[in-house]
Each structure stands twice: as C-alpha cells, then as structure tokens.
Amino acid sequence: MRNLYRLGAVFVLPLLLCNAALHAHAQDSAAPMEKKEQESLYSTIRSFVGRWWNGSELFPDPCGSTPVQGVLCDVFDGLWYVTALSVGPVMENSLDCARDSHFPLQLFELGHLRSLSVFSCFSDPARHPVAIPSKGWEKLSGSLESLEARSNRGLTGEVPAAIGALNKLQSLVLEENKLSGELPHELGELSKLRRLVLSGNQFSGSVPASLGSAMSELLILDLSRNALKGLLPPAAGGLRSLEKLDLSSNLLGGVIPAALGELRSLTLLDLRNNNFSGGGAAGSFGFLRGMAALQELLLSNNPLGGEIGSFPWASLENLSAVGLSNTFLGGEIPAAIAGLKGLRFLALDNNRLRGGVPPELESLPAVGALYLSRNNLSGRLQFSSEFYRRMGTRFAAWGNPNLCYAGGGGDDAPIGVQQCRGEQGLATDGDLGGGTSGLRASAAVLSASSSFAGGGGGGAPWAASPAIFLAALLL
Predict the structure, then answer these.
(1) CB of 97 within 8 A of CB of 87?
(2) Which of 50, 317, 392, 437 could form a disulfide with 98 if both were Cys (CB 3.0 to 4.6 A apart)?
C-alpha cells in the first residue's frame, strides 16, 4: 500500500503540471521567454535525458505554443520563467532519463524554480553513481518549495549540508535511493518544512538533535528503513505540529523519550523494528497520555518490557491499529482495550501476557484482526462461534498451552486452541485443531501476523497506513 501512495504522488504531479501549464498558456500565450532562462532549461533537460535532445528544434517555445511535458512556467515582469521541472518515466511523453544522466549546474540558473522532481532517473549505482550537488542550492533559496528524488538506485552519497539554505522549502522527499552517511544537522534549519521523508536509504549515525522546535510547521517525519542508531533525541518533542512520525526499521535504541508526549497532534507513531527498551520503568508509557489524536500505535519488535496495563488506554480512544508484537510485554490484557471502539487491528502476539482473554474484545465493532499467539494466556475463550467464523485466520491464539475454547469444533473452532474439557467433542491436550492441517493453518496465521508487525526488519509496504491494510482485511 505504501508503494501505491508513492506511485499516486508520482503520477498526480505531472497531471497538475500539465493542467496548470495549459491554463497559464491561455492567459499569457503572447509572453516571451527570457533567453538565458531558455538556454538553462534546454541544458538542464539534456543533462537528464541525453545530448540527443534538441530543445531549440523540438520545443522552440517551451512555455508557450510548444510546451514540454513535466515543465511548468509562470510569468514574472512580462517574461516566462520555469517554476517546476519533473523528470523520469511517469507518463508516455515524460522526460525519460539517459543512462549517463546527472544533476547539471545549469539547474541552479532557473532562479524561479519552485518544484523539482526526479523519479527513477539514476539507475546504475555501480557504473554510473550520481551524487546530489554539494553547491549551488543557495541560488534557489528564494524560490524552491519542493525537492523530491524517488526510486533512484544510482543516487548515492550524502545529503549535502547546503540544502539547509533552502529557507522556503516545504517538502523534502528523498525516498528509495542509495543515499548514505549521516544526516546533516542543517536539516533543522528548514523552518518552513512540512514534510521530511528520507525513507528507504542507507543513512547511518544518529537522528539529528536539530530536528526540533525550529521546525514548527513539520507535519510528516519519515526516516524509516535506514541504519540510524543511538537514542531518539528529546528535541523531537518540539515538533509540535507533527502528525506522522515513522522511524521504523532502524537500529535506534534506549528509552523512548517522555518528550514525545508533547506531540499532541500525532496520528501515527511507528517505531517498529528497532531496539527501544525501558518499558519496565515506572511511567515509561505515560508519554502516550498526551497523544489523544493517535490512531496508529506501532511498536512491534522492540524489547520494551513492562506491563501492558501501564499503557494509558483510556486516553487513546481514537486508536484504530495497535501493533505490540514481540515487545516482551507482561501482565494481563486489560478490559479497557475493549473501550477503543474504532480499533481495527490488535497484535499482542509473541509476548509474556498471562491470565484470561477479556470477552469484551468481541464487542469491538470494527475489529478485523486480533493476534494473541505465543503468550502465557490461560482459561477459557468466551467468544461466540460467529466471531471465530467471521474472523477466520485473522484471529490467532495458538501457542498458549493453558488456553481453551468453549463450544463445538469444526470450522467455527479457533485454529490451534484446544477445546475445553467437559465440552462436547472434547479434544485431547495434544490436538492443535486438526492435526497437520491445523499446524499448517497456524503457520499461515503466524506469517500474516508477523508481516503486519513488521517482522524481519525489512519494513512492510503498508506501514504508512495500516488503516488501508485493515480495510482490505475486511473485504
């Protein structure tokens, strides 16, 4: 699903550019283009698509009667200037990149450029690696608002500190490339930034402490699927406007800072597949109490420890997805979770939970997946046959030797859970729901739960929006 979002963003931009260009052309068709601007545009495009591209012959009036796909212009003081440039194989007539494409210096002569997008352009990291230019960005400091580079396997090297000079930048997306090195602290100087996405690269080092209160307008911070390590700086709590925080699939560790509780607008907190700990300390999950807007809480595959009852469930009434698989949580499942009426996904498998399973969980009106496998749960499951039939393999409670279910067997029986003694058709302690077929089904359930929890450290395509994944589950 994450990939669908990326493709949607890639395809929508050229459509908007095309429509806007047509509208502008109708209004200012008679406006000329500044000669130096035109030459800089032609040279820039040739650097991306190849020297064969002869703009002066193919597109003699690139902002007027012969528009270029992926180029958007606007009129300033009676002259056309380029305001947006999109290169890469997006549409049939898109500017397709050559194998030896590169970032040209002439790009920085487009002084009115507001948006630059490079999609799947640099593809050969071994034979032709391309780096982001380390100089020249200051020439675009008064205009550039969006800088995006997606799915460029040949885009290598570090993010240059000079990008911090882009004081009008609102969106910085460098996703699914081969960028590496440490993140420059100058990123914290981008005070107008609303979206910072650096996922799917090879960044190392720590999360910069400069990502804090100076970035008061930041809404999305996604550093997932890298090799970042160390502690999460408390300064992150200064990102007061933040709505989505995704640091999943890194090497981050230590205690989750209490300062995150200041992120009162947060709807997604995704810290899966890291090494966060400290859940056993008093009040360690108290920071969640201030996150009343939170909808997706994904902490799976971290050695958190502590008790599940210490989560402030009553303060998290807007939750729709909870992923706490493999977090070393203990204690009894609190009935308060049943008060989360919008909850659609709950994964508590592979923990140290004990005691019974609250029957109130069946009353959750929207629940589409409930994973409780491999714990120390005991007693009788008191869910109805209709619940088991509706949930199918999306309910899993196997791997709890002292847990049993009440009712008949057959298709309505929960996979891998023994029938309680004294019930009609009593199962033996060794019967895990139909012999080898039951074991195969249990393995399938484990695979499904682990994938959603983000097992394996590789990240999952739905991670940015588990609500969409859940909608698919309910179809």
Answers:
(1) yes
(2) 50
Give the separation between CA 221 and CA 198, rounded to whole angstroms: 8
Q: Please tell me the chain's helix, strand, coil percentages from 3-state DSSP, rounded to the nearest 5.
A: 30, 20, 50
Q: What is the pTM of this model?
A: 0.86
Residue 41 covered by a domain: no
For 13, left (φ over 0), alpha (ψ -120 to 50), or beta? alpha
Residue 382 lies in a domain: yes
Residue span of the structural domain in which 368 resides? 278-419
* Residue 122 pLDDT greater than 80, yes or no: yes
C-beta neighbour count of 421 within 10 angstroms: 10
> What is the CA 357 to chain-centroid distance, rounded?
32
| In contact, 243 and 218? CB cutoff 8 Å | no
- The C-alpha torsion from 433 through 434 and 440 to 442, rounded to 10°, is -10
Report how far residue 384's alpha carbon sits from residue 321's, in angstroms, rounded to the nearest whole number.
23
Q: Report the CATH number at residue 412.
A: 3.80.10.10
CA distance 44 to 55: 10
Residues 6 or more apart whose CB falls under 8 angstroms from that of 129 comprise: 122, 154, 155, 156, 157, 178
**Whether residue 383 has pLDDT greater than 90:** yes
Q: What is the pLDDT of residues 367-380, one digit of tens each?
A: 999 999 999 999 99
With pLDDT > 70 as the criterion, what percentage of the chain qualifies? 82
Own/partner long-range contacts of 314-317 (Cβ < 8 Å, ≥24 apart): 314/339, 315/288, 315/289, 315/290, 315/291, 316/288, 316/291, 316/292, 316/340, 317/292, 317/341, 317/342
